[in-house]
Description:
Layout: H1 4-35, H2 45-49, H3 52-66, H4 75-88, H5 94-110, H6 116-143, E1 150-159, E2 164-171, E3 185-190, E4 199-204, E5 214-219, H7 230-237, E6 244-247, E7 263-269, H8 273-286, E8 292-298, H9 307-315, E9 320-326, E10 338-339, H10 344-350, E11 357-362, H11 365-377, E12 385-388
Parallel strand pairs: 7-8, 7-11, 8-9, 9-10, 11-12
Antiparallel strand pairs: 1-2, 1-6, 2-5, 3-4, 3-6
The structure holds flavin-adenine dinucleotide (FAD) and protoporphyrin IX containing FE.
Protoporphyrin IX containing FE binds at residues 39, 42-44, 47, 53, 56-57, 60-61, 81, 84-85, 88, 90, 94-95, 98, 129-130, 133, 392-393.
Amino acid sequence: xxxxxxxxxxxxxxxxxxxxxxxxxxxxxxxxxxxxxxxxxxxxxxxxxxxxxxxxxxxxxxxxxxxxxxxxxxxxxxxxxxxxxxxxxxxxxxxxxxxxxxxxxxxxxxxxxxxxxxxxxxxxxxxxxxxxxxxxxxxxxxxxxxxxxxxxxxxxxxxxxxxxxxxxxxxxxxxxxxxxxxxxxxxxxxxxxxxxxxxxxxxxxxxxxxxxxxxxxxxxxxxxxxxxxxxxxxxxxxxxxxxxxxxxxxxxxxxxxxxxxxxxxxxxxxxxxxxxxxxxxxxxxxxxxxxxxxxxxxxxxxxxxxxxxxxxxxxxxxxxxxxxxxxxxxxxxxxxxxxxxxxxxxxxxxxxxxxxxxxxxxxxxxxxxxxxxxxxxxxxxxxxxxxxxxxxxxxxxxxxxxx
Length: 403
Ligand SMILES: Cc1cc2nc3c(=O)[nH]c(=O)nc-3n(C[C@H](O)[C@H](O)[C@H](O)COP(=O)(O)OP(=O)(O)OC[C@H]3O[C@@H](n4cnc5c(N)ncnc54)[C@H](O)[C@@H]3O)c2cc1C
Ligand code: HEM
């Protein structure tokens, strides 16, 4: 338990952290990687360069500091981060290393303002926060489908659209696949020729659980800011059937609640459809009477992945409705419901909007912001809204978050 004085110091430094938070975490990463270059094998370099990871860590530290006397209120947030840590292989022995460098960074950025009393208070508080993470992660490691990164054979590689390709993955050891919940992801650790470090990325499982293989569906991230996506481009261009990929066990707190009978609304933009297809297929096979509305936005028919698979599932059921929205349909595109973008007025027309429905969505950040705002404006309660970020989690209600 922390002393009352420590709690007071921590709480009074939250506004200081809010001003300097990202400067502190940027400095922290600089020092961390200088002293522990081996950690570059688990951190995502693109997120670092774009500042997204810095922002995520800073936000987590503010949240923890503001709630230091009632950490139980941030447990749901900790769980999401802990799943990510578990899937990356973050271990208890990493925590003191991070703590030590975080304190050095605070000292460095705040200078004389960081008195011994403040630094000692933060050292104590960090220990308490780290113990919460370590405790939750320990249970996650115990319950994980397997330990570490396991070799999987690419048994099929299927082009699903002009930008998205699926990989079917079977464990090399032929031992049964671990169960997963529809919406969860796996981490893949890639050793790319010519690269000094390994690169780990998350991919949502895009098929229903209970198959003989896992399926991931990957968008080729090429050309943005003249820098190609490291892992997705390698997967598209180099990885072929018969190759081995190393996966950690399924993880993540974004998954379909299959104990619920409520109408379920699945909304996706672009490659954000992968967890939604897993959820759709699960409902279709396990809860065939449950009402589903599946909404997907794509640029046009060419970039629309898994179209026939979704259509066939919907055709076979009286309880599944699909809506496809194309930003710029091609002349040959047929069967889309709406041209342009999803907006609040249209959602109001097509959605059940009963408070006994559950809403799940995933897509690019600006897309998710629009959906989130629209659902809240249409009086959907927050507990019925669930979403996934294909990058470090952030706050959708903030005006500007890094894409
Ligand atoms: C929970 C979760 C589930 C996910 N599920 C899926 C999924 O099902 N399918 C899927 O395709 N993806 C998914 N992702 C995203 C995936 O993990 C990767 O982030 C994605 O494939 C891009 O990785 P990359 O290595 O190809 O690109 P990176 O090399 O990581 O680059 C990412 C982006 O940053 C840009 N970039 C890189 N370096 C720089 C730089 N120096 N300056 C400026 N910009 C730069 C690149 O152009 C690219 O647009 C998921 C992510 C998460 C967190
Ligand atoms: C109490 C201490 C810690 C806090 C508050 C914290 C917080 C976070 C947050 C908020 C994220 C983003 C989660 C997301 O993707 O949505 C994250 C990711 C991550 N964390 Fe931690 N973390 C802590 C300790 C550690 C430790 C000890 C390590 C290991 C060295 C670590 C390694 C990572 C890595 C590798 C990622 C993913 C980075 C990326 O893909 O961009 N973290 N952490």
